[in-house]
Amino acid sequence: MRRIYMDANATTPLLPEVFDAMRPFWIEQFGNASSIHQQGQHARAAVENAREQVAALLRCRATEIVFTSGGTESDNLALFGVLQPYLASQGASKEPAHLITSAIEHHAVLHAAEALRDRGIEVTFLPCTPSGLIEPAALEAAMRPHTKLVSIMLANNETGVLQPISELAAIARAHGALFHTDAVQAAGKLPLDLSKTGPLAPVDLLSISGHKMYAPQGTGILFSRRNVRLSPLFFGGSHERQRRPGTENVAGIVALGKAAELAQQWLAGSSPADLAALRDRLEQGLLAAIEEAGVNSIELPRVANTTNLYFDHVEAEALVIALDLKGLSVSGGSACQSGATEPSHVLTAMGLSPARARASIRLSLSRLTTAEDVDFALATIPAAVGRLRTLSPPWQKAVPALA
Ligand code: PLP
User: Fold this and answer.
1) pLDDT tens digit string along 221-279?
2) 60 noted as active-site residue
3) How far apart are the CA of 275 and the centre of ligand 1, in A?
4) Which among 152, 104, 158 has a CA at the least distance from the CA of 306?
5) Pocket test for ligand 1, best of 209, 302, 308 (most atoms within 8 A of CB)
6) Atom number, ligand 1, closest to the C-alpha of residue 75
7) Is 0.90 surpassed by the pTM of this model?
8) Which of 266, 279, 262 shows the shortest CA–CA distance to 6?
9) Is residue 13 a contact partner of residue 364, using CB atoms and an 8 Å limit?
10) Atom of ligand 1 nearest to the CA of 72
11) Residue 120, phi-psi category: left (phi > 0), alpha (psi -120 to 50), beta (remainder)
12) Who's near 389: CB < 8 A, 6+ residues apart?
């Protein structure tokens, strides 16, 4: 059966060029980058070359790149790395510290913020507007003299909404606080310029995950600006300039470097606009074919590959399964936690009713998505929605002619 993948925000395929670049570092070139013999030097050179490739993508210094095990670790390193010195267990006389984040962050940030709150840090979770925006005025109003860190994501993983990061980061900086952004769903999809004169100049910390940009799962990056003092999460050797001890994942790091280089090439051409056009055709086609449907956050700037649609009177979970059986991989707008299907915290924070949040699915295209893939989705989704609605009592009541 033909299988079409439209879940790139969950994970992207490993690009063959990336695999080819990393492969030798598992087999012939297996050295430890800390060893002084030739195999070690070879591994060290490969790690430092990858650091340069990532720095070129982000327009920052190579020394500002910390390699991690993924987006979750990068987010935790940013939050705990900045706030660790203020934890209550470090001594009762420590000065108070305040963290501001938002209600629509990925759980890697949300749960880290909750853990910090449990350890005595004051935490504010900013609400978003009904379309999913974190308003700069809301951040300005929440800033306190003891706010040490603000963490707001760049692109939302469910809706694709892009936050006004330059403006938000400038507010944090004006108040003397550091600013972190989770750029896991933005890296490789849009230009990220962290140079002194670039739009992200006031950003101090930025997280990236390898497996959302065509490198393997279990690889990640934290950008940490030169002046930031970061306490490590782990204790051990002095790797990554004392910021992240542990023998480097040389093959994974080489893959990140190659993925960064490929991302830079991809961003320089017409591909991002082509991908946005594919996504827009998909959205418009589905809205034209399916009644009582809509796109969540359509009114805001969004990352080009993502659309989050609701089809009222359809359970997203049932639709995801029905589409899977037809050969189309997509994701539900709801997260399955401890066996119970909860409506998505992002859509709920936007004020969607639980029913509409449960009727929402996410389609996320990749660089490998083709026009034929979109045609397949346009043929498959309306039929599946129609079939599920005939089984839905609320739909039968709303549209008696179909009952
Ligand atoms: N942040 C965002 C916005 C994400 O979408 C994800 C993964 O879905 C993560 C963080 C976590 O990244 P990782 O899977 O590499 O730990």
Assistant:
1) 999 999 999 999 999 999 999 999 999 999 999 999 999 999 999 999 999 999 999 99
2) no
3) 21
4) 158
5) 209
6) 10
7) yes
8) 279
9) no
10) 16
11) left
12) 311, 313, 314, 395, 399, 402
